[in-house]
Each structure stands twice: as structure tokens, then as C-alpha cells.
Specification:
five-stranded mixed beta sheet, globular, alpha+beta
Length: 344
């Protein structure tokens, strides 16, 4: 638990008199107003935040002390999830829901104590690169049964099917897809953000988070395309043309060659198969309709491509070691059901 770390509300925010990148905040922590200097950019007056008061000790052993920053005294610290050891990275301080009571201990907001197993998986056991895979292995050792998740997805049989063409079937044995319409892209619920944090991943938005969560749970990488950004509303799985270029989601332009398998629309590459999606078909706050991908790509192809473009991802790590072609539809169903529940 955390001692002397409480919920505060920013009553006043103004520019630090001696520093352009710092703000001076008056924060109500429940019966007391503290003057706290903050370097983050995402906080506003009225926000509920997490405040480490003087005497609090953060994960890693740092003790919060009264200190002067650029000549102005600070009586605590407004914290991010990273500083509290709850996330691998943060875009700013942790903004709490508006209904969170001021002065409450942060311990009341944290999930119950949990256990995280750090398991080393050898390269030949790709079937264990998921929670389900490890559970299945433990069940075999213990002589117990595995309870497989069940999903209830009802498709509109009158709707047009996704238009998928696999030109190079020697590198893609299976490509399952589904169109999901009318989604609302936004932040993930707290439980999903926390779950991803335990897996060592950061939250992006509810759609991307769901695809990543399903991958960690079932071992099948997935990708979500913004359907409106696909030229011709179609997918073509093919080798790249020599010299084709694609800006991937990490905002780096990659030059492709004719041995690399890509996902394309009618006119251009939109993803490097099994490695990373393209920025030109990225899901964002304006996305309404999705095309979901759950595929099997040949391991040696993904391994070679990832090495050539200098890019390793959670997806490529699993495809390189061989995924289960029979898992594609199960993962697609789980992903679809979660999207309908959390973004429908």
C-alpha cells in the first residue's frame, strides 16, 4: 500500500514565475491546501489527481520532501502512474474520475493485491506465449482440465463480407477478418489499462488495447484497420513491390522489398504482415468502422522481414515462433465481443 498518498483536487493553476515549463498548483488534499509545482502538461483546474505528500515514499525508495524549485517552495508531488509503479510509461499525471473523493487514500483506488508470474519461454514453445497457453501447460502437469473462454458473437448474415484476396498463399495460410461498424474510440476502462500494465504494455485506446489484450490472453496477434482509410475497402495479402514505402505506426518510413509480405488495400501497403500496421490505416478518435485481422503468417517470412526493417514487436515475436492457425477465429470472436461491450 501507499502511505501519505491521497486524492487531491487542483483549485488553482498558474505559471511558475521563474520557469516556462513548470506550473504552480494549489491542491486541496482534504482539509488542507498544498502548494505544489508540476512539470506535466495534462492537468487543469478542477482535476482530481494523485498527490504524494511530504514524507511519502514512492516505489524505488524516493521520499517526498519539502523542496524549492526555481526559488518557489513545493509541498508535495502530483504523480503519474509511472511514478507510482503502476504503468511502464505515462503521458502526464494521473487524472482521476471526477467522482473520486478528495482526501481519500490512493490505496482505496488500487486493484486488490495480485500475483504476476514472469515465465521464461524457450523458442520452441510458442504455444505458451499467452495466459491460456501457460494455463494449458499447468493443467497438463497437474492433471486438470482447462476452461476455454466462450464468446457469443452474432453476425449480420445480410451484410457484405470483407473483400480479402490472398495473392501469396505460401506466406499466409489463413486470414480471418470481420467488419465491425459504429464503434466509439476512446480511453479504455481502468481494469483493461491495469491488465495491460501487468502485461508490460501501455494503453493506447480501447480498440488497440482490446487487440493487444486478446493477444496476451490467447497468443494470437490481431490488427484493427480503419475501414474508411482502406482504398476500395479491401485487403490484399501480397509480396511488396521493390521500393514500395510505408510509414509504420511508430512514424518511421520503411522501404520494402519484393520478398516481404505486406497487407495492402487496392493501391498501397497498409501494414507489414505480422510485424506492424501502417499509419495510413491507423485507428484514431475519428474511426467509426473497423476491419479486424486475425491471420497466420509463415514464421520464416515474419522473422526475415522484421530483421530487414529493424523492427521487432509483440506480434512478430509470436509469429516468428509459430502461431496456431486454429486460434485465429477464437481470437477474432473474443476481440469482436470485447469491442461490442467496450466500444459499441
Amino acid at each position: 500500500g501507499f502511505d501519505k498518498i491521497v486524492v487531491g483536487q487542483i483549485q488553482k493553476k498558474e505559471q511558475h514565475p521563474n520557469a516556462d515549463k513548470l506550473t504552480l498548483c494549489k491542491v486541496d488534499v482534504g482539509g488542507e491546501i498544498l502548494s505544489i509545482i508540476c512539470g506535466a502538461k495534462n492537468h487543469q483546474e478542477g482535476d482530481k489527481v494523485v498527490v504524494s505528500m511530504i514524507g511519502a515514499v514512492l516505489p524505488g525508495g524516493m521520499e517526498i520532501k519539502r523542496a524549492k524549485l526555481r526559488g518557489v517552495e513545493s509541498e508535495g508531488m502530483i504523480c503519474s502512474k509511472t511514478e507510482l509503479g503502476l504503468a511502464a510509461s505515462s503521458d502526464g499525471v494521473w487524472i482521476l474520475p471526477p467522482q473520486t473523493p478528495v482526501g481519500a487514500s490512493i490505496n482505496t483506488l488500487l486493484p486488490q493485491e495480485d500475483y504476476i508470474y514472469d515465465v521464461s519461454i524457450t523458442a520452441n514453445r510458442s504455444d505458451c506465449l499467452s495466459t491460456l497457453g501457460v494455463a494449458r501447460e499447468v493443467a497438463i502437469i497437474e492433471g486438470k482440465n482447462v476452461t476455454y473462454p466462450k464468446f457469443n458473437v452474432t453476425e449480420d448474415k445480410t451484410a457484405a463480407l470483407p473483400v480479402i484476396t490472398i495473392k501469396d498463399q505460401d506466406l499466409c495460410y489463413r486470414y480471418a477478418s470481420r467488419i465491425v461498424r459504429g464503434v466509439k474510440v476512446g480511453p479504455s476502462p481502468e481494469w483493461l489499462q491495469e491488465a495491460l500494465g501487468k502485461y508490460g504494455a501501455r494503453s493506447i485506446n480501447n480498440i488497440v488495447d482490446i487487440t493487444n489484450y486478446v493477444m496476451f490472453e490467447l497468443g494470437q496477434p490481431l490488427h484493427a484497420f480503419d475501414l474508411a482509410k482502406l482504398d476500395g475497402k479491401e485487403i490484399v495479402v501480397r509480396r511488396a513491390a521493390a521500393g514500395e514505402k510505408l510509414v509504420t505506426l511508430d512514424e518511421v518510413e520503411r522501404t520494402l522489398d519484393k520478398e516481404m509480405l505486406i497487407i495492402a488495400d487496392k493501391t498501397r501497403p497498409v501494414a507489414i504482415a505480422g510485424v506492424m500496421g501502417g499509419a495510413n490505416s491507423e485507428v484514431d478518435s475519428h474511426t467509426v468502422d473497423l476491419l479486424l485481422e486475425s491471420a497466420y503468417f509463415v514464421p520464416h517470412s515474419v522473422r526475415k522481414t522484421a530483421k530487414q526493417v529493424g523492427l521487432r514487436s509483440e506480434a512478430s515475436y509470436r509469429f516468428e515462433r509459430d502461431a496456431d492457425p486454429e486460434n485465429t477465429v477464437r481470437a477474432l470472436d473474443m476481440c469482436t465481443q470485447m469491442i461490442l461491450e467496450l466500444a459499441g
